[in-house]
Hints:
Blueprint: H1 11-15, H2 25-29, E1 38-43, H3 46-56, E2 65-70, H4 73-79, E3 88-93, H5 97-108, E4 116-121, H6 126-134, E5 139-142, H7 147-158, E6 168-174, H8 181-196, E7 200-204, H9 212-215, H10 224-228, H11 236-242, E8 244-245, E9 250-253, H12 271-278, E10 283-288, H13 294-302, E11 305-310, H14 314-330, E12 338-344, H15 354-358, E13 367-370, H16 373-382, H17 386-389, H18 394-406, H19 409-414, H20 420-427
Parallel strand pairs: 1-2, 1-3, 3-4, 4-5, 6-10, 6-11, 7-9, 7-10, 11-12, 12-13
Antiparallel strand pairs: 8-9
Helix pairs in contact: 4-5, 8-18
Amino acid sequence: MTSIDYAQPSMDDENRGPEAVAPSGDELKELRPLPRISVHAFCESSSLLDLMDQCANDRRLLNVNMRTNQGSILAASSMFATSPTPNLLVIEASGGRADLMNDLQKLADVCDRDTHVVIIGDNNDIGLYRELIRNGIAEYMVKPVSMSDVIDTMSSIFVDPDADPVGKTVAYFGAKGGVGASTLAHNCGWGISNLFSSGVILADLDLAYGTANLNFDRDPLQGTAEAVYSQNRIDDVFMDRLLEKCSEHLSLLAAPSMMDRTFDLDEDAYMPILDILQRSAPMTVFDVPHCWNSWTLNLLSAVDEVVIVASPDLANLRNAKNIFDALAQARPNDPVPHLILNQVGMPKRPEISVSDFCSPFDVDPLAVVPFDAALFGDAANSGRMIAEMDAKSPTAETFSQIAHVLTGRSQIKAQKGGALSGLLAKLGR
């Protein structure tokens, strides 16, 4: 059954009432901008609808993709039955406790695992507040609420230094040079941002030969190199200046792709960047160059998931096996890397079969991408993604499936439905 991923309430949350949520104006001024999250508000009253529209124009929500609708919990349930839920749902709810809990069940049946929910209600009932918090609702706010109340609540979920990082990190790494790991990383990042209207940062770490700026037809003046060599002053604001906006939901941290200097990096060179990006967007995709040194191993060990890209020949098989073995030692408690076989079916090239290639790893491939020189070549030369060139192609569908797996949505869809007790047990996880 699907369920919504919320942080468990602390003892302080259990002991305070709903009336204790409003911050002072001075506290609000100190809040940092929210990360690149998606927020959807459902308001039953026109006054709250106007308030949420005002929040959307606040400077602290500059990076937030915020949408407002006139409607209730049931309207939200109906909308998200056929579309992914955002990072945060803000819902106005009237009526009694029983009606509210019943309506939340319908919402939970269609809600993605990592969505947070804030309820704005009429009942100043400490029992209801504690029940909702205990069952995992991120916050229950009693009307009337102000802009500072709403923005402070959002910040407590996504900006609080003690909160879990808002974002997931995925690194693409080629088993051999030229296997297309960068192309797959770029299409993956673009696909997640486009399919799910979710904020994505694509970080090109190949400082000398990076191609992300070419593939997205961008020419930013600053990017990854400035972040690496300015670690003494790197923070959220500085990083935000380095990001190039490629689309409504996709931002690029581009490599300079120049050879005016050498790039001899320390083993922890990318750790501060990883930490900041992890708190800046729901998804960060790292395009890691094909090299093996201390910073590469450190980064691959630190990200949430690793995707190994290989072509079906003997050198790729040997290298991929070595990478899997190295990461098994470096990441003993983390998920096994994903494996994508790319450029499969190249004419006149002897190839190892998919089953034989995957047997040493004891994993099924995340995807098998066929060789299509015309489609990939046209996309690269046009500075566009595969789905932009031919959205109905089998390759575009493969990239869509990869995006669903890496965001957890393919598994979540299979878990939808169930009893209220199961939902709310997960809410309070």
